[in-house]
Design goal:
Elements (H helix, E strand, L loop, with lengths): L1 H44 L6 H26 L7 H16 L6 H24 L5 H20 L9 H8 L1 E2 L3 E2 H19 L1 H11 L1 H6 L4 H27 L10 H11 L11 H20 L4 H22 L1
Antiparallel strand pairs: 1-2
Helix pairs in contact: 1-12, 2-7, 2-10, 2-11, 2-12, 3-4, 3-5, 3-10, 4-5, 4-10, 6-10, 7-8, 8-10, 11-12, 12-13
């Protein structure tokens, strides 16, 4: 009898593990099911909206949010959050346009400098969280306020500048007249972050730190360094997105980063990464960024005014994220 009981428990445990594996796969791929449903609705309402040309344009529109989402994913995986991404992006976009001033010879130096500034902002966030022991919410919220003041002071409330043809091509051009260059940059960022998370020591330490910071520390992991690097990458990604948007718009803009903070968090959570940390990845975030972009495009296509789009988008994102949280 005891043997039969132990066999039954073993079968139940194996079934539990199998169900957990299936559940994890469903959670990771669930965002792509939502994406599929949105595409079907778009096809019904407007067949041209699912043409290859339009979908490639959607991928270009989603590229900046997707790149910001990559950095946000790493931060949230370590049980953090970065609310400064939108202000960081806006500052870099304004600086890029204001420093290049249409000069081709200044593109590479300014791009390198601006990426360094974005990474430095992330470094300050990471040091504030790990060394000053500020909560990620408070630290990055304060950084958002500081950066907003900086770019308003730098631009005088009226951004100037002009982007030369080479950077305009990266932000708005198409390779071979078909494939958006910004999408290529996004794909490279996805591949690099996926490889880092899946195959590098830093990736393993990121999952471990998010899963249990105390256990990771006792195991010899430099938890503070992992968290700092995550914020540095987030700052770098925000800067890269700002540079792409500078190339797309062609000049500085005070409103270019509006919504990227909350939308990047929504994309990450929809993609299966949880605030509890130690779980998730960039592949799900890619789907989240596409869902948000197509959703906004669909609301625009329905003729809903901007105020209505913002309200509807917020309510729908709340519903989707709530479903994920409930399932978790």
């Amino acid at each position: 009898m005891t043997k039969l009981k132990s066999i039954g428990e073993k079968v139940k445990y194996e079934a539990f593990l199998e169900g957990k594996k299936v559940g994890d796969v469903i959670q990771r791929l669930g965002v792509y099911f939502a994406l599929f449903i949105l595409l079907i609705i778009s096809a019904i309402l407007s067949p041209p909206s699912v043409s290859p040309t339009h979908l490639l344009n959607v991928s270009r529109q989603a590229s900046a949010l997707g790149i910001v989402g990559i950095g946000q994913t790493l931060v949230i995986m370590t049980q953090g959050i970065d609310l400064s991404v939108a202000a960081n992006l806006t500052l870099i976009q304004i600086m890029t346009a204001g420093m290049i001033l249409g000069r081709e010879q200044m593109v590479i130096p300014v791009v390198i400098f601006c990426l360094g500034v974005g990474a430095f902002i992330g470094l300050i966030n990471g040091l504030g969280v790990t060394k000053l022991k500020l909560s990620p919410f408070v630290m990055t919220l304060c950084m958002m306020s500081v950066l907003t003041g900086v770019y308003l002071l730098y631009s005088g409330g009226s951004p100037r500048g002009r982007i030369p043809a080479s950077l305009r091509f990266v932000g708005a051009g198409r390779i071979g007249g078909v494939f958006p260059a910004a999408t290529v940059v996004w794909i490279v960022a996805i591949a690099a972050s996926f490889i880092v998370l899946r195959y590098s020591i830093f990736g393993r330490y990121t999952y471990a730190t998010g899963g249990s910071p105390q256990a990771s520390y006792l195991s010899g992991v430099n938890v503070d360094l992992v968290i700092i690097i995550a914020y540095v990458i987030s700052g770098f990604c925000s800067a890269l997105a700002g540079i792409l948007l500078a190339g797309y718009i062609g000049t500085g803009s005070l409103t270019v980063g509006m919504g990227y903070d909350l939308n990047s968090i929504a994309a990450v959570i929809m993609g299966g990464t949880t605030f509890a940390g130690g779980r998730g990845g960039v592949i799900g975030t890619v789907g989240g960024a596409l869902v948000i972009t197509i959703l906004f495009s669909l609301l625009t296509m329905l003729g809903i005014p901007h105020s209505g789009r913002l309200m509807a988008q917020g309510l729908i994102i709340i519903a989707i994220v709530s479903l994920y949280a409930k399932r978790k």
